[in-house]
Amino acid sequence: MALELYHLDHSTCSQKVRICLAEKGIEWTSCPVDLSGRENLSPEYMAINPNGVVPAFVHDGTPIIESTVMCEYLDEVWPDEPRLSPEDPKKRAEMRAWLRFIDEVPSMAVRVPSFQNVFLDRFKAMSEEEYVAFRESNTLRRDFFMRMNHTGFSDDEYENSLLQLRATVERMEEALTREGPWLVGAQFTIADICLAPLFERMVELSLSDMWDDAPAVADWFARIKARPSFDAAFYPGSRLGDVYPQLRETAKA
Length: 253
Ligand SMILES: N[C@@H](CCC(=O)N[C@@H](CS)C(=O)NCC(=O)O)C(=O)O
Known about the structure:
The chain has 2 domains: 3-77, 3-Layer(aba) Sandwich (Glutaredoxin); 89-252, Glutathione S-transferase Yfyf (Class Pi), Chain A, domain 2, CATH 1.20.1050. It has 14 helices and 4 strands. The chain starts with a strand and ends with a helix. Strand 3 (56-59) and strand 4 form a beta hairpin. The longest helix has 24 residues, at 155-178. By secondary structure, it is an alpha+beta fold. Glutathione is lined by residues 11-13, 35, 40, 53-54, 66-68, 141.
């Protein structure tokens, strides 16, 4: 069975699918998509993923998109151990509720400090006309780039994204303390996988003090990082700090 993964080294959504592939021991072929070169909006890539975002994979000729859906697909099509979704429908529903929450809240929120503190310089270097042309060429992301604007997010929007990330940490701390050791109990699931790259991103953005007072979350993240799948997904060159070395300097300061 052939699986071609269209992805970007340092994209959090790509990282979660790579963790999943490593957990399942699935072989894949790498097809890098150059976002700064706008390859994600090329007709060839849009034929695979009409949303114009990474990741996507093509499995035996069929495109599968949406990183969370992709993880569920992998677990269904490769049902051997380790199973990454609970068998019990109630636990499965609990996992899926987490997946929905993760897609809607922290995955969206983490983009704000990522763009504000790391990617914005690339847009600031554009003229106003270039920025508007860029923004208008991407209908599905237009709203995001309107809010970011050429000059960065409003203080309110920035603050709101941090509050949402903090609310995620609090919700996790409650779940992990109540049951654990994983998000939906004894089984390590796709919900844990989908959160892991967001936490690594927060570390890179110097936001890890968000879980200073959440020991169960800190322990959960340490256990995720100790899994071989984490290193497989975060291979050398795939961290934000590898692509934007100035981030490392800021984090140290
Ligand atoms: N809901 C999508 C979101 C994917 C997404 O937003 N990907 C980002 C990279 S992490 C992207 O491709 N952005 C394209 C852009 O910034 O133009 C998924 O989970 O697959």
